[in-house]
Amino acid sequence: MYVTMKPLLDHAATNHYAVMAANVLNMEMARAVISAADEKQAPLIIIIGSMAMAKHSAAELMAPLIRRLAAQTTAPIALCLDHGKDIHKVAYALHNGFNSIMLDGSQYEMGENMEKTRQIVELCHPLHISVEGEIGHVGQAASLDGRDASLYTKPEDAAYFAKATGVDCLAVAIGTAHGKYPEGFVPHINLELLREIKEATNQMPIALHGGSGSGDENIIAAVEAGINKINLATDLQEAAKKGAGEAFQKGADYIKTLQEAELACKNLLMHWMELSGSCNRAKDIPVPWRFSDLQGDYKNHSIEE
């Protein structure tokens, strides 16, 4: 079922696990991650970045596809714009049916970041659209930005930002980074800082961006320390690439190549769902309404009323 991400993350925060936020680029990846959620009966957030939408994964094509697939499972599925940088990207996503927004104002100084995020919250909340903000800066893995402690989130800033903006979830910088790490490098996640952020923000849902390449033990420890949303992009793309490559090397035709890429994505995400503790949680999540219900109950009211 297609729902906004707030009830998923609130339940995860209360029950000490994390929801996977899987990046998809096409039909095969969307079907793979939703199939994984269905098989594991796990809540799922699907994320698509504004850059990916501009280059390949157009929102007007992807959102209806995801909504249709989500309707075929009892697992709750949300669709979130990832790293929306401005109101134009947010409006594009909302116009095309996204039900959750991640507003990334980390490139701005804190005051401007708060103001831009607050404006998006004020726009989205009356529509029951969930909003995630970012404080601190999650950089690029290739540059090893995750080792730069000056980019890390300060607990007092996180508390102030969350209260001032009213966000439903907060992305923080605690040692991970976006993209693919250099060969053999495993990031150090500052778990003590994470615990301090959780305490400062009154145990609100906290998101870990740059989950790919972090290592199973790191992820399990991060969930235990308070992470409730784990973004996964690079590892899923690498899995699809590997699955397709192996099929191609065996002489598979185009359809079989796509099927193997899809299966590789599904299998990888099911492993991450085990790490996150989200398996078999779907049935326990209270969902007050499905997102399609917001269209209104026209059939029971006449025009005259």
Q: Low-confidence segments, ≥5 residues, pLDDT <50?
A: 294-305
Distance between the first and last residues' Cα: 31 Å
Shape: globular
Question: How many alpha or pi helices?
Answer: 11
**Percent helix:** 40-55%
N to C succession of SSEs? HEHEHHEHEHEHEHEHEHH
Query: What is the annotated CATH architecture?
Result: Alpha-Beta Barrel
Kindly give the count of domains.
1
Query: Strand pairing plus helix content: what structural class?
Result: alpha/beta
Overall mean confidence score, pLDDT: 90
Strand content: 5-15%
**CATH superfamily name?**
Aldolase class I
**Largest sheet geometry:** 8 strands, parallel, barrel
User: What is the number of E strands?
Assistant: 8
Instruction: Please state how the strands of the largest beta sheet are arranged side by side.
Output: 1-2-3-4-5-6-7-8
Could you name the CATH topology? TIM Barrel
